[in-house]
Amino acid sequence: MGNKLQLKKVTLSELCLIFLLVFWGCSKNDDKVIQETAVQEIEIFTEESQLNTVVTPVNADNSNVFWGTDNPNVAVVDESGMVTGIKKGEVTIFAISEENLKISDSVVLQVE
């Protein structure tokens, strides 16, 4: 009658990605000049196996994103957003702002 909660073990590659993102975010030089136009939002849109992002505002000083996947056994994504399916299944692909690691978007894809 209630929904079942399914827990998922974190894979080694996911743990490494989380560590890198946290380490990179914490190692920024706090003495840098604050960017005038900060990223406020990221939105992923799909074109078959190529993912792209729209960063708001469009004139943000740093619109770069990190790409990642929650299940590299099903699909991987490269630094340009190109997804390569490995085997059948569901995978979540995410983009995280290089400027502000708290800003991200994700899409769920089915690999056939």
Give the strand order, joined by hyphens, for the main sheet: 3-6-7
Net shape: flat
Question: Percent of residues in beta strands?
Answer: 35-45%
Termini Cα gap: 31 Å
Biggest β-sheet description: 3 strands, antiparallel
CATH class of the domain at 42-112: Mainly Beta
- Residue-averaged pLDDT, rounded? 81
Number of strands: 7
How many distinct helices? 1
Proportion in helices: 10-25%
- Strand and helix order: HEEEEEEE
Unreliable stretches covering 5 or more consecutive residues: 1-7
CATH architecture of the domain at 42-112: Sandwich
- Rg, rounded, reads 16 Å
What structural category do the secondary elements indicate?
Answer: mainly beta
- Briefly note the CATH topology name of the domain at 42-112: Immunoglobulin-like
Topology:
Layout: H1 12-26, E1 41-47, E2 50-56, E3 65-69, E4 75-77, E5 83-85, E6 89-97, E7 104-111
Antiparallel strand pairs: 1-2, 3-6, 4-5, 6-7
Sum this structure up briefly.
With 112 residues, the chain is mainly β.
